[in-house]
Amino acid sequence: MSTTTMTHDEAHHHGAPTGWKRWLYSTNHKDIGTLYLLFALVMLFLGGASAMMIRAELFMPGIQLIDPDLYNNLVTNHALLMIFGAVMPAAAGLANWMIPLMIGAPDMALPRMNNLSFWILPAAATMLILSFVVPFFPGGGTQINTGWTIYPPLSVQVGMSMDFLIFAIHLLGVSSVLASINIIVTLLNMRAPGMTLMKMPMFCWTWLVTAFLLILVVPVLAGGVTMLLFDRHFGTSFFDAAGGGDPVLFQHLFWFFGHPEVYILLLPSIGVLSHVIPTFARKPLFGYRSMVGAMLAVATIGMVVWAHHQYTIGMSLGAVTYFMVGTILISIPVGLMVFNFIATMWRGAMTFETPMLFAVGIILMFTFGGLSGVMLAVVPADMQYHDSMFVVAHFHYVLMPGAVFGLFAGVFYWLPKWTGNMYDERLGKLFFWINVIGFNITFFPQHFLGLAGMPRRIIDYNVMFTEFNVLSSIGAMIFGLSHLLFLYIVIQTIRGGKSLKRSGAKSWEGAKGLEWEVDSPPAFHTWETAPQIK
Amino acid sequence: MKATSPVDAGKRRTTLLLAGLAVGMFAFGFALVPLYNLICQATGLQSVAVRSNGGPGAVRTGGTVVDNTREVVVKFDTSVHPNLPWEFAATQQRLQVVPGQMYEVIFKARNRSSSQVVGQAIPSIVPWQATPYFNKLECFCFNRQLLEGGESTDMPLRFVVSPDLPEGINSLTLAYSFLKLDEDAAPNRTNAISSATAVKSATPKGKSDVSTGT
Ligand code: HEM
Ligand SMILES: [Cu+2]
Questions:
Q1: Is the pLDDT of residue A98 over 50?
Q2: What value of ipTM does the predicted structure carry?
Q3: Do B12 and B88 share a domain, yes or no?
Q4: Domain residue limits at A455
Q5: Model pTM score
Q6: To the nearest 5 percent, what fractions of chain B are helix, strand and coil?
Q7: How many CB atoms lie within 10 A of CB A510?
Q8: Residue A403: CB within 6 Å of ligand 1?
Q9: To pair with B191 at 20 to 30 A between CA atoms, which of A167, B25, B98, B143?
Q10: Cβ distance of B44 and A316 shorter than 8 Å
Q11: Across the interface, do A251 and B203 touch by the CB < 8 Å criterion?
């Protein structure tokens, strides 16, 4: 790896380069982390805009604003933008910023690859946006009306948008595999002397596991969509029953990726919580070892339960029983993590700054989502709930707190470190309350809608579902717009000014760890001589 | 820092290992194609028939075994509900079949009215005990049918009678009654709405088209 070493040496005695080159050619983990976070913020707003259009259409029964294919395209885009555009890059941004600071390393192990894995993302996002735009032009083909699961045969029939989407998925896959390799190599080779694996900060552990999961499952998805591409254009019939293939095979390939993916989204935020809760409870994390163990268990079992998304395809009794038991088993280690967090808070000297508010909110709401997950895991029940709004409610209750709120907590927790300015605590708390209340108004009624039989991914609904949908849409407007406040807080904190307090090296009284020993904001290069860990 | 320091060697080794793992998983995705069929055959994972052996409502195909020692008579009966302005009849009244073998029968329908009408055929089998052994591979009754004013059409039915058909049954009747579907269930609109659910009805999930979206 002589090339990477050289880059590192070259940069050694310089400050930050200036102008656009600083960003385009960047090999600095802090700058790349910032780029990832900004990219995620843009995608959050694009994904949010699609969601607001979905909810606007669902405000009333009947078809008012958009046509059904466009509606389904928005549903597809919303999921892809949020998962691949917002949550994963935001988590990668936190990783880039914090991992080297936390383990006392001067940078990521492979800085040039780091640059590449970020800059693939805007290309992928362009592809994704093109897939949405192309059908509006003559000859552009039909819209992607499949949902994010892109099941064949429908996805074979969609027009050329699907090819753009397939390429976007390839690019996103390459980007996240490269980023994961980089993170694992950094964590395994660049820890400060004396920092054994079992002394590694929890956020690093969660990313180590996440990165391994990504390397294991993303290539399988890439393989699946490659087969889809072949079926579409090269006359193969991997998924075409008429040619001896099987559309259900795609579902297996997709969910082999798809289920571990939910832990990929969850774990980095669990990592953030493992720092936020001890800081504001002023107690060390309860059960560090059991947290690591639980996480490894979740990841391992999580690899082999994917078919709980496919109970209705007609598997044998033995198979569904296995997938059911496996799925329910996962709730044990997940529950253990939650108990560890609660035990950390137990009798702590707690204060409730914004990151801590999010942390407490996550524990309450994520657990609720876990409960509806266990309901869905039960085969005979899921035969009823499958593809209904109940599933939508479930995964928003796990993903929104479990992933997005965790990232918000992380941003509020580390923003003072990154910028040197304390954000406005009053605005932060206000954002938390509007956000959380909006979230619950939006998604809680969807449980009832699902149980009463409203299907997901359908533009129209029976008039008997009107009241809850109206409520949900109103909640969605509150929830969606609240993110403008988030944007404002972030911009305000970056710009600083007299109204904001400055942050010392240690932004929070109870914070522990190497990242709080460097200045706020940290110098362009940190930990050029590694600290010694006792 | 020299280019060959132990840390660099370690980084290099880990990077290569992980890259190999990623490539290996990509290959594994493709390996799943043959593996999938093998696993399904070996364990019957994918087979509803295996699961519901013996249960009521199960479809028994008895695999591809053809039982040449038996012959069964299948009679076809058709009726049209008064609300549907159609003619509807089978091109054959009866057929001698060998259990395990596939047969095709054509049904003819014509719309006597001058406007577009949507109909749905409802099958039933007499004696009802034979129902699980009568396996329709393709049937116009799986979907709603749309006929323009004056239009006529040929609709195929493909079926196999299972060799497991109980000994005592030597003749059975398949009766279809065609009903008119309501205006607001007209397929134009439903097709558009159910584009996302089309995946559902096209994959073997055991849900009929009629029941989606409710
Ligand atoms: C206690 C743990 C959990 C259990 C038992 C569980 C169970 C399930 C089941 C059975 C389904 C399929 C429902 C259906 O389609 O009929 C499902 C869907 C889903 N779950 Fe969970 N879940 C759990 C936790 C999580 C977590 C932690 C996340 C993410 C952070 C998550 C995200 C999702 C998503 C995104 C879907 C829907 C995917 C789609 O169809 O588009 N779940 N869950
Ligand atoms: Cu899952």
A1: yes
A2: 0.87
A3: no
A4: 31-513
A5: 0.78
A6: 30, 30, 35
A7: 15
A8: yes
A9: A167
A10: yes
A11: yes
